[in-house]
Amino acid sequence: MRALVAIGVNEPVSVFNLRVVPEDLLAEGGPPRSFAVDPHDGEEPEEPAPAMHTPLPLSPSLDGMQSFIPAWLKLARSCSVPLDAVEPRRRSGSLQLQLLDVVNAAETLHRTLHEEPTEHPLAKRVRETLKDSGDFNSAERRDVHNAVKVFVGITLEKRLLALAEELGAEVCEWLFNGAVRPWAFVTARIRNALSHGFTAPDGVHEDPGALAGALYLTEAVITLRLLTEAGLPSSTTLTSQLDRHPRMGSLAKQSIADWPALAHRIKPNQWPQPA
Question: Which residue among 67, 141, 239, 251 is the one 20 to 30 A from 26 at the CA level?
Answer without folding.
Answer: 67
